[in-house]
Amino acid sequence: MRRRSVLTLGAVGAVAAAVRPSDALASAALPFPPGFGWGAATSAYQLEGAAKEDGRGPSVWDVFSHQPGRIRNGDTGDVAADHYHRYTEDLDIMRDLGLTSYRFSISWSRVLPTGRGTVNPRGVDFYHRLIDGLLSRGIAPVVTLFHWDTPQALQELGGWENRDCASWFADYAHTMFSAFGDTVPTWLTINEPKTVVDVGYTAGTHAPGKQDRRLANVVGHHLLLGHGLAVQALRATGGRSRIGAALSLSPTYPAADSDGARRQAVAADAEENRRWLDPLLLGRYPEDWLATQAADAPVRAAIKDGDLAIIGSRNDLLGVNYYGPTHVTATGSRVMRHPTSQATWQEIYPDGLFDLLTRVKRDYGDIPVSITENGMPTQNPLHDQDRVTFLRDHLTAAHRAIQAGVPLESYHLWSLMDNFEWAEGYTQRWGIIHVDFATQRRTLKASAEWYKTVIANNGL
Ligand code: GCO
Predict the structure, then answer these.
(1) Which CATH code for domain 6-457?
(2) Could you tell me the CA-to-CA distances from 316 to 150, 362, 437 in Å, in that order?
(3) For ligand 1, mutation pick of 321, 340, 429 (most atoms within 8 Å of CB)
(4) Containing H/E element for 187?
(5) E strand intervals along 336-448
(6) Ligand 1 — pocket residues by CB below 6 A?
(7) Of 3, 12, 38, 262, most Cβ neighbours within 10 A?
(8) What does the alpha-carbon distance between residue 210 and residue 214 come to, in Å, rounded to a whole number?
(9) What global pTM score does this model have?
(10) Segments making up each domain of the chain, as ranges
């Protein structure tokens, strides 16, 4: 059944290249709404390289990746996919794929080398060229302001542990809103604050490499505060751009048919999802999550009067990064119930995306949703049929969510091309474009050819 549908799509794709998208649309068995955004996502440190060029300052990831033992094989993002120099070629690849949306992030320390104060015009110019190159190819820029790369100069002042970082971030955001104005239709403030908290500050395997859960939760609050202040800064410009955050969300399920497991799944939902969604979209922390914080937990003191009104400033959209579900036993242990990928933390469960999207609508109303990341790594270099299956199954789930009334407006797979996968270095390839890191040669994988057809047909 699956094999057959791939073959059918392949045949349609060959024809679709020669016809207008509206003609092709009729041939999709699962058509997406007209104007649906077909995208791919990347982030600055993972893709750009040029770490020391044109006045860029270091970020926490430059420092962390150069510490011995932090990254597999001692890899760093110094060169990465060299996108800083090859962005024109990359823009042409995006156009040839037919992308209508591209999510990337701005390197804060490229535009503000010490995080605040003097702007680096050469850094700003790079993003002008990138944005103009997207617009001239009919691709809508979706721009993330913070994808984990805190300027090192600010880290030395405490980074996100310091409440002032929220204001530094809002000032940086304001500088970007002024520089790019309405050429950026969609801004995303913070990417996956959960990962900063859980991996950067608790496990310590991401920058800045701390292992302090209490401090981590303070960081989480300050990230949310920075988000809210940036939303307010955008509103103050009077521009037409929209703004939201990109959250990594994971539907939680009891791993057993017992009251204990069901209770633990609710607790895990508070930790995984509601502690981020509720402040952003409802202007409050969930009571059950707050109850897990000890009376002397520093996060309690970090939450000041008025913060939640700022954090809960109206968002125009919600960015959802979906990689898989969470299953919890009666004792609160996390267990896997579905196949994984080369990323051993990942559980592949497409129906979880349907559950997640319909849940957002049910509990948070009709806020427009963009899938800002979804994907898997595979060791198949070019013939990545496993990724094609993954993408098709998740897009099918997304389509079902749209049928159920979820205002889903766009989909960005992770990732446009192979890149620096954080602590895994270059050992995990997440792209639909293969990058030979020795030559920087780009080659379309089977998944890229497949996605091109999906886009041409505006559906599966
Ligand atoms: C994320 C990340 C990406 C990762 C991807 C795969 O926001 O988690 O944005 O940077 O590369 O998720 O792990």
Answers:
(1) 3.20.20.80
(2) 25, 17, 38
(3) 321
(4) strand 186-191
(5) 369-373, 408-414, 433-436, 441-444
(6) 43, 46, 191-192, 195, 248, 321, 373, 414, 421, 430
(7) 38
(8) 11
(9) 0.94
(10) 6-457
